[in-house]
Design a protein that fits this description.
The chain has 266 residues and is α/β, with parallel strands linked by helices. Helix content is 42%, strand content 23%. It has a single domain, classed as Rossmann fold, CATH 3.40.50. The protein is globular. The two termini are 30 Å apart.
Length: 266
């Protein structure tokens, strides 16, 4: 298996995470860097949050994007009007490109869903020319996403299955401090730098927060699909109570931190 992310519909992903990855993409690009005339690879493009942000740079020569999910690839293709951009279905651990093809390979919110994350980093290094850049960013599920931890801690308090789900969620690959940096170094990248990037997730109300989870999107949504109707209602009521925190339903805002890592191909 080369992806542990569950996706049913591109629109569901957009509500779950796409709208927030679009906020993260400009910060990540600033960290990864760009230069005129470059060829860029977006590994795990999803619905195109990073890809379409990259396209705002008129100086780029070419942007290739791959994703393991054909649902995401098709959605991105339908949005695309830029002749510099190409989308295709592919595996991050077996990239369909020759050695030294790109100036930079970037991965936005992808490596923590790749069971063989080190192999994906090795592939990104392989397809980038010497002197080029490999960069990636992942959420800090354990300590950097209070809005999501609120949800999974609530679910964990209700059942053993919820506690097991929390353990999986909080300790996915590449999420611990220094873990991604060590992997970059192990894969032979030089001048490796790790930092934190922060955005905010702003929700209109509980339904805005919960709808994609209730529809089965993403890791938490996948867990919800394993519950019977009575247990789903119990979980939703408990999470609603946590979200509202004794106040009327309405807007809520949560800070979210991601680990970002960058290295140079020797």
């Amino acid at each position: 298996m080369t992806s542990s992310f569950t996706v049913h519909a591109a629109s569901g992903y957009e509500q779950l995470m796409g709208r927030w990855s679009r906020r993260l993409a400009p910060l990540f690009i600033d960290f990864a860097g760009l230069a005129g005339g470059e060829k860029i690879l977006d590994v795990g493009c999803g619905t195109g949050s990073l890809t379409f942000e990259l396209a705002k740079s008129a100086g780029l020569a070419e942007i290739q994007a791959i994703d393991f999910s054909p649902v995401f690839v098709e959605a991105a293709k339908q949005r695309n009007t830029d002749p510099r951009m190409t989308f295709q279905q592919a595996d991050a651990t077996a990239l369909p490109f020759a050695d030294n093809t790109f100036d930079r390979a970037l991965a936005l919110l992808v490596l923590h869903f790749v069971p063989e994350a080190g192999k994906a980093v090795a592939e990104m290094r392989r397809v980038v020319r010497p002197g080029g850049v490999v960069a990636a960013v992942v959420w800090d599920h354990y300590g950097g996403m209070p809005g999501m931890r609120m949800m999974i801690d609530t679910i964990a308090a209700l059942s053993e299955a919820g506690r097991q789900m929390r353990s999986r969620y909080c300790f996915q690959p590449m999420m611990q401090p220094g873990e991604m940096k060590r992997t970059f170094v192990e894969q032979g990248l030089a001048d490796v730098t790790e930092t934190e990037l922060m955005i905010r997730m702003d929700y209109e109300n509980f339904d805005d927060y919960w709808a994609p989870i209730g529809a089965g999107e993403g890791p938490l949504g996948k867990f919800m699909t394993t519950l019977d109707a009575t247990e789903r209602e119990r979980v939703e009521a408990a999470v609603r109570d946590a979200y509202q925190a004794g106040r009327p339903d309405g807007p809520r805002s949560f800070a979210n931190i991601a680990w970002a890592c960058r290295g140079i191909v020797p």
